[in-house]
């Protein structure tokens, strides 16, 4: 079994470390990815000292990013996003609502949210209300509400149904009025 290789990161590598970190990785990962892409090199004291400024800059960027994420999480608490999609008569969407759709809607609403921060167990496939978690880090998360509404075709079908019910009610009211009028005429004839 191969021993881990110790390398000095020359750039930030997601889920591994930031510039200036000395990390232990598998030999194949080092040989096939980190070294050919110039993301890491073998550590020496001179190289470590040369990367101190870059490391301080990277730490400042991480602190600023964390502050921005904390502010975003506080703003996201209680947010409701409305998405309008095409669906059939039973309310089943022709497509589905995915992480990308939710992230795009949040960005359009002015929230700095990356698609990877949206946590969905499964895409939404029906119209209705759902809850979605936005999580940047383990402790930085918020729940938002997603309202998936039907587009015009289903709404116009609902409106047509309401108009039909209103017309039926008007017809029934007119029939009741006619019956009442006929009864009044019948009473007048019987008196006269």
Shape from CA axes? rod-shaped
By DSSP, the count of extended strands is 9
Per CATH, the architecture of the domain at 73-150 is Roll
Order of helices and strands: EEHEHHEEHEEEEH
Tell me about the largest β-sheet: 4 strands, mixed
Write a structural description.
- The chain is of the alpha+beta class and 192 residues long.
- Among the domains are: 5-50, Ribosomal Protein L9, domain 1 (3-Layer(aba) Sandwich); 73-150, Ribosomal protein L9, C-terminal domain (Ribosomal Protein L9, domain 2, Roll).
- The protein is 46% helix and 24% strand.
- It is built from five helices and nine strands; from the N terminus they run ββαβααββαββββα.
- The protein has helices at 27-34, 45-50, 52-76, 99-108, 152-191, and strands spanning 5-9, 22-25, 40-41, 80-85, 92-97, 118-119, 124-126, 128-135, 141-150.
- It has a four-stranded mixed sheet with strand order 4-9-8-6.
- 14% of the residues are buried.
- The mean pLDDT is 85.
